[in-house]
Sequence to fold (492 residues):
Amino acid sequence: MGAELKRNLMSEWWRSMVHTREDIVGIDASIIMHPRVWKASGHLANFSDPLVDCKVCGERFRADKAPRAEPGADTIITLADRPRAEAAQEKIDKQLLGPSGDTRMRRDGKTLTGAKVGTQGYVCPNCGSPFLSDERQFNLMFRTSLGPVDPVGDMVGVVRKAIAEGADEATIRLRVEESLAESSVYLRPETAQAMFVNFLNVQQSTGLKVPFGIAQMGKSFRNEVKVEKFIFRSVEFEQMEMEYFVPPGRGPEYLEYWKNERMNWWQSLGIKAENLRLRPHGSDELAFYSDGCFDIEYKFPWGWDELEGIASRTDYDLGQHSRESGKKLNYFDQEATDPATGKQGWHYVPHVIEPAAGATRGLLAVLCDAYAEEPADAEGKGARTVLRLHPRLAPVKAAILPLVKKDGMPELAREIVAQFLDAGVNARYDEQHAIGKRYARHDEIGTPYALTVDTQTLADKTVTLRQRDDRSQVRIPISTAVEVVLAALREA
Ligand code: GAP
Fold:
């Protein structure tokens, strides 16, 4: 079911970005690209998180996400239980504060007081301790090696030689890095860069005129310090990104356009408006080259969190790839006037607006938004759990249900399933348990339509069509069933 839901969400994105627009084309580039792509994009040098270990509870966390605290202020350390608090008290007193023999931390049950926040200005997000390791930069890209030669063998030789020469640790590390660099490649941490390096290729082969966009969706990989919240943050996930190339000076106008388009898209798939918001990035969050960025945030069960970023990236990306590759990534607009010369014909490096959404994260938002537990009516009937998925996202579009397993009803129901499958609509046959239980089962997986074959069907070739959301039922001829459901899916 999850696979179907994710595919449907991604197909909807592709449909809205590529199939319903003339100004955007899609590509499907490789996951492993030339390592110089990641040098040009800045991912090799800068795509890292500051990593810290707590010396009290062992938690490993990102310094930039840790709870802030005033240096020198008191902080309370809370462990999971009393025995752990006793062990932590002893460790802090004897090892972390130095072995003076005095008890300096005070313990009450599982909490410890007496510690002060250090100069780093944050504490452990798990226990509140200020006893932390130094920050280490940790690159988020997964590195692997390309080629038939085992890089470990080379590395051993390099280390042996360096030790024989009496090299220090930093030098040995540098030489190992140099030997690895020859064969190192990286799993892409985002789908975006392939669209920049293919900008000219796509523009020249399609003849598209700026403004136009290139879209790509697919797997990305990040060696996240902490995977969390089910599929919200994982090391392997799918993205849906689009790079929209515009003339210099028109970035702000198209940023405005795309932020509205993207908000509308999520809502068009049924996400409730009150659970979505646009958050502008403050100047402290903006990348140095960006002149504006918004996050679309969803109200997840734990609070507002990022679903998609929409960034105005100026000409930074094409400029970087152009410098690194030595190949100009310019566009020539023969009808426009060059603002520098006042003459007709303008060569320029396009600016970029990038709506970058998480497909895996989108799937989680869709699930959270659609889930509902409905209470029973006054007679105690009708309580149910229902997944109010947008019909086009629903994994199964129509459940085909014979009322009983006899009198030719199963055979007729199977014929109807075949008609749906022939039309490319994912329908499922279900004959297990009473009809009410089957409706409930399909409500739980979000099936928007159920068609029931009953005694009347045998006489007049009609079926009941039940709607998931209001549980209403109407009779329709079998001959129109596929078209009725297809029309409902189109109009939903
Ligand atoms: N090219 C820009 C870019 O990749 P990003 O904000 O790092 O921007 C875009 O990623 C989207 O990808 C995020 O808004 C989020 O939905 C999703 N995403 C990023 N890291 C993720 C992870 N570790 N697990 C799941 N989704 C992730």
Observations:
- Residues 2-19 form the longest helix (18 residues).
- The two ends are 20 Å apart (CA to CA).
- The chain has a mean pLDDT of 95.
